[in-house]
Amino acid sequence: MIYLENIFVCLAIPLIIAACLLKGETRRFTVFFTLGFLVCLLSAYINSFIAAAAANNGYASLTITQAMAQITPICEEIMKALPIFFFIAAHRHGRDSIVAASLAVGLGFATFENCFYIMEYGSSDFLFALTRGFTAGVVHASCAAILGYGLALTYRRGRLAIPCAFALLCATSTFHSIYNLLVVAKGAWRTAGYIMPVITAAVVIIGMMNTKLKIEN
Amino acid sequence: MVILETLDFISYIVGGALAATWGTLSFWRARREKGQSLLFDMLSGFYACILMCDIYYLITWTVEDYPFLLSPGDLSWVGALMFLITIALELTDRWTPMQRKAARRYRLPALVAPVVCIAFNMAYIAIYPNLIFNYLLYAVPTVILSYFALWLFLTEHKDGVQPGLKRYHLTVLGWIVVQLFYDLFSTLGWDYGYAVPFVICSWLLTLTSTSVYFAAYRLHKHERKVVDG
Questions:
Q1: Are A76 and A176 contacting, i.e. CB atoms less than 8 angstroms apart?
Q2: End-to-end CA distance of chain A
Q3: What ipTM, to 2 d.p.?
Q4: Which of A63, A150, A158, B98 could in theory staple to A168 by disulfide, Cβ–Cβ 3.0 to 4.6 A?
Q5: pLDDT for A136-187, tens place per residue?
Q6: Domains of chain A: which residue ranges?
Q7: Residue A166 CB partners (closer than 8 Å, separation 6+)
Q8: Quick check: B99 contacting A, CB < 8 Å?
Q9: Using an 8 Å Cβ cutoff, are A72 and A180 in contact?
Q10: Do B63 and A181 touch (CB under 8 A)?
Q11: Whole-angstrom Cα distance, residue A211 to residue B81?
């Protein structure tokens, strides 16, 4: 059995100390990166609780595939969005800061999740580690970046921000579900699942670079 | 009948996915050429949600059984509705104070649409009380969208504040009406073995969804004209 709380404590303490010493954007990034760990830990609790509750309430036939495709992504995406909502509500920062904060939450979440998987399944398989890094890590980071980008567009528009935030949550949850559904399947579907995040990351990076070039010009 | 249903499903999924890809690509091009606009971004979100919904159902249909509790594919469809609500809010935000004042008189007649939607949804919940969460998930955005769609349509019809968008609002309204009937017929059809109304309704939904893609494209073209000035 793996004690996630202990892993969290050992990983978060150095980052919290670093956050106290740093300033400005770097401190913000470190804080949100650590918050990513925390929301990953909380999501693990909530996922287990919902799966158990569903099994006890007449959904005993709930398979791992169904739980991974339908419960986990929705819960994880909502949890990842919470620190970003708080950040937007509490501070009036620029668009870039919002995207950077949400990206940090996504990366922190992915890092903590990867730590857990490496401990659970062992660190001897290099291919497994490489695949986790390029797929799950990228999915979490991409979903968080998309959410941050969308919120950054509307957060100053008052009432527009609420339906847009909900729509973005729905979109990222579905994207995450599609990935989960593909990787737990077999054969070509699984390969498609591994390729999907890499393509998405490429599109997001090209899109961001294009926007940056346009602004600079 | 199974073949007809399968054909309907495949045509709906593939057609929807193609239309959504086309919409996303055309948005991408417009954004590159014309620069950033909130409407372009919201439209891309709308198309992306429809595309993901189609992909999710296709994969679920192929690798898994039908979703058991709450399908993220449904959530994506709700996301598309929420993007349409954001678009409606953005369109109302563009009114001048004079236009806003003129539009105020249509707010009360526009309440007819949400009342009808609520009545339909109450009927569904009465028939299937165990699906209350799913119906509420769909009902809330549908009720809000129907209100805005009717309000904007009435305003356009009488005052013509944003010319060229009357058909868009009408299509959104039509889409909502067909969805309400689709839900009613399909749920009854599953219980009582009425496969024919289900197939007819799903074809109707396919046609209406296609018209929504074109309506979104019309909105897209309208925005390009606005950006061009």
A1: yes
A2: 55
A3: 0.85
A4: A150
A5: 888 998 899 889 888 888 888 878 889 999 999 999 999 998 888 888 887 8
A6: 4-216
A7: B79, B82
A8: no
A9: yes
A10: yes
A11: 27
pTM of the model: 0.86
User: Smallest CA–CA separation between A118 and chain B, in Å?
Assistant: 27
Please check whether residue A47 touches B, CB under 8 A: no
Q: In terms of residues, how long is chain B? A: 229
Collapse the DSSP code of A181 into the 3-class scheme (helix H, G, I; strand E, B; otherwise coil) and give the result.
helix
Tell me, yes or no, if A61 comes closer than 8 A to chain B by beta carbon: yes
Provide the token pair at B10: 């495949």
Contacts of B89 in chain A (CB under 8 A): 159-160, 163
B50 interfacial to chain A (CB closer than 8 Å): no
Q: Map chain B to HEC letters.
A: CHHHHHHHHHHHHHHHHHHHHHHHHHHHHHHHHHCCCHHHHHHHHHHHHHHHHHHHHHHHHHHCCCCCCCCHHHHHHHHHHHHHHHHHHHHHHCCCHHHHHHHHHHHHHHCHHHHHHHHHHHHHHHHCHHHHHHHHHHHHHHHHHHHHHHHHHHHHHHHCCCCCCHHHHHHHHHHHHHHHHHHHHHHHHHHHCCHHHHHHHHHHHHHHHHHHHHHHHHHHHHHHHHHHC
Q: Give how far A128 is from chain B: nearest CA, Å.
A: 23
